[in-house]
Fold:
Amino acid sequence: MRIAAQRVSSASVSVGEREIGRIGRGLCLLVGVAPGDDERDARKLADKIVHLRVFGSPSDTDGDGRMNHSLIDVGGAVLAVSQFTLYADCKKGRRPSFTGAAEPKLGAELYERFTGFLREFGVEVACGEFGAVMKLEITNEGPVTIILDSNDL
Structure:
């Protein structure tokens, strides 16, 4: 599994003109699934995400400008959106190939498991709609964007 995590002060997702998810401070996660991924990958990434220290102090009193706090520490939320294009292969030609992405059935299953694991940590999770054309609005804070891959953990 591969995730692009963006620290946000707010984020929302819409399908057509209908908003289906919104969060305040937290992380917007673009979540991709590969064919060999399984529940262990989803669990590993959920654990890493909720404990990743990418936030400043909630009261900003430490004053050193370091990212010392996790999503749990700051009471942040997650907006999770499925994103098969994280597995785009652009080596040949000008049109990306997506053969590195999982089939939709596996993708949907692991995306759901992943968001479930986040909720087990007590994190508020808003979701996009798997397989839908979505519009994201984010206010990236920092900006901070981190790429995580379960094969690297």
Notes: Residues 104-120 form the longest helix (17 residues).
